[in-house]
Amino acid sequence: MKRLLPASWREARLGFLVETQVPQRDKPDPLTGPIPWVRIEDFDGQDIRASKSGQGVTPEQVRAMNLRVFEPGTVMCSCSCSMGATAIVREPLVSNQTFIGLKPGKELEPRFLFYLMGAMREELQANATGAIQQYLSRDDFRSLRIPLPPLNQQRRIADFLDSETARIDSLSALRERQVQLAFTRLESLAKQETGRILIRGAKEPSGEWMTYPLRRAISGIKTGATPPGSEPEPWTEGTHPDTIPWYGPSSFQGIMHLGTPVKHLPSAAVKERVVPFFAKGSVLIIGIGATAGKVAYLDHDASANQQITALTPERGVSGKFLAWQLWAATQELRELAPYTTLPIINNDFLKSFPIAMPPTDFQQAVVQKLDCVAERVGALHAAAAQASKLTQERRQSLITAAVTGQFDVSTASGRNVTEGVTA
């Protein structure tokens, strides 16, 4: 890609500036040694020092298998999978062939190379080959042409980006903390208003509350299903009057909200009992898996897969209040549910789960109050997500502009530095 560079910069082949290091193909076994064995999951920020899983190799394994040990200062770059994921090695470590090591020579500052490789992700992806899994070879990396400012300017750019990205990241973290604080307050309010605090024994039941097993608050309980493979393919894309949404755990998004269905089914699939029918007003709960205990209120007719259970509220019981109470008890459900490797919230367990039910008019008042607070929290989350997306786009534009010479970082004010800059 042809670049217009500042007068003091030049374009050079990466292979002339770094020593390229490729790990051995074979995976060591066991991985119990002191030299970290790192994977893509261990990448988190500019520096990498250790394996989050604690996996490692011994010096004896390094010698016996002739393993490539990346030295401090080496820039590790993913050459497959998450193409362009980059980090600077700070302690000696070993990896698999997901990565290539770029050991800078005297003309390259490691931090500048770190930012540059991150800015070149799209170019790396475009150059990758492979039908099943895309890959960049050592020769592909060596042939890359990169912009190269003088070494002192590389360090100045790296210092500037270290400072600016840290400032941007701290703002993003602050937004996340604000959203989490609002969510925690809603959770606490929901526990108090729906009686979960009462159930947990933090206060004595008042004369206006009734507590009993969940089975007494529902008229029906159903588990979802997936159409059998022997059935004619029932799926249909999109929506039209003769379809019904079919949900999975991935559809549970936000606060008791159902997002995009996994698929849509023809209504005939429900009529013929290929899958169960969940009526509007039902309370859905994920019964097994990593997200077990998540709750959603169904404001339309639907169906779902076998990981999801639907509760039909008894007459006189507010389905939305019941949903709020179970939402407030998500952690409680997970703690008390039977376990294998994951919590299993089965129907028998659910029917015996203790709940508190105030008078009907009180239920409605609580629902209105919690819905109002949830709407504000949801709006805050949406605004923060949009702001974070914009911030990350500007962050990347800032990095790209700095490492390609679009502006002189020595004259940047540190504020609105990406205004008018294009990646």
Automatic annotation (TrEMBL):
Residues 32-169, 221-373 form the Type I restriction modification DNA specificity domain. One of its GO terms (molecular function) is endonuclease activity. The keyword Iron-sulfur does not apply. Gene3D superfamilies: Bipartite methylase S protein, DNA methylase specificity domains. Pfam families: Methylase_S (PF01420). It comes from the Bacteria. InterPro entries: Restrct_endonuc_typeI_TRD, Restrct_endonuc_typeI_TRD_sf, Type-I_RS_S_subunit. Keywords: DNA-binding, Endonuclease, Hydrolase, Nuclease, Restriction system. PANTHER family: TYPE I RESTRICTION ENZYME MJAVIII SPECIFICITY SUBUNIT, TYPE-1 RESTRICTION ENZYME ECOKI SPECIFICITY PROTEIN. Belongs to the type-I restriction system S methylase family. This is Restriction endonuclease subunit S.
